[in-house]
Design a protein that fits this description.
Layout: E1 3-9, H1 16-28, E2 33-38, H2 53-64, E3 70-72, H3 85-95, E4 100-106, H4 107-111, H5 119-125, E5 127-131, H6 138-151, E6 157-160, H7 169-178, H8 188-196
Parallel strand pairs: 1-2, 1-4, 2-3, 4-5, 5-6
Helix pairs in contact: 2-8, 3-5
């Protein structure tokens, strides 16, 4: 049996915060590998500024190319319509019935988990690794964890120990268009790719 992490997102673009999240999850939960999985069309996010999947995929590949425990997965990109986590977990359990899955989420996702489609089934199919974020109090996270375990007693919810990194892909996109220093949050190969293809109005 393998312990497999799942790090999903739009990765618009992928940045050092994502990589640190993966690194700490890998180290603290003895994961064998982590699937880095770009969304096709996230059900709960505004997609107006969502870059083409081919560009986002290539940036993910570049960002993780030298990190052996990270594996690019395009399984959500091949699914038509909105991207739902439950569909991904059901597919993974079908193809890897003997493995255990750890779904890596941010604090805001844990607090608002009941907005996710079939969230109770998600809790049955994967352990959650939750990264704390500024703006979400520890007490909120503890209350959310307790509430979900009342509903799904077999749920496993863990908190990740790592520095709070208050950077987002939105901040980076806006920074690149202003030509400021936020590019330091990008892996060098990703920043070079963005500049080469003139993405995000990069100067």
């Amino acid at each position: 049996m393998s312990n497999i992490g799942i790090l999903g997102g739009t990765f618009n673009p992928i940045h050092q915060g994502h990589l640190m999240l993966a690194k700490k999850s890998f180290e603290q939960f003895s994961l064998d590998r982590i699937l880095v999985m770009p969304n096709h069309m996230p059900a709960y996010k505004d997609t107006d500024e969502l870059l083409d999947a081919n560009h986002r995929s290539e940036m993910v590949r570049l960002a993780i190319q030298d990190i052996p425990y990270l594996e690019f997965s395009d399984m959500e990109l091949h699914r038509a319509g909105a991207t739902y986590t439950i569909d991904t977990l059901l597919d993974l359990h079908h193809t890897h019935p003997n493995d255990k899955f750890y779904f890596i989420v941010g604090a805001d996702s844990l607090v608002e988990l009941d907005k996710w489609y079939r969230y109770r089934d998600i809790l049955k199919l994967a352990a959650l690794i939750c990264a704390k974020r500024t703006g979400t109090a520890d007490s909120q996270l503890r209350e959310a964890k307790s509430a979900w375990i009342v509903q799904v007693p077999e749920a496993e919810i863990y908190f990740l120990e790592m520095p709070k990194m208050d950077i987002s892909s939105t901040d980076i996109r806006e920074g690149l268009s202003r030509d400021d220093s936020l590019h330091i949050w990008l892996p060098d190969a990703v920043y070079a790719y963005i500049c080469r293809h003139h993405l995000y109005h990069c100067r």
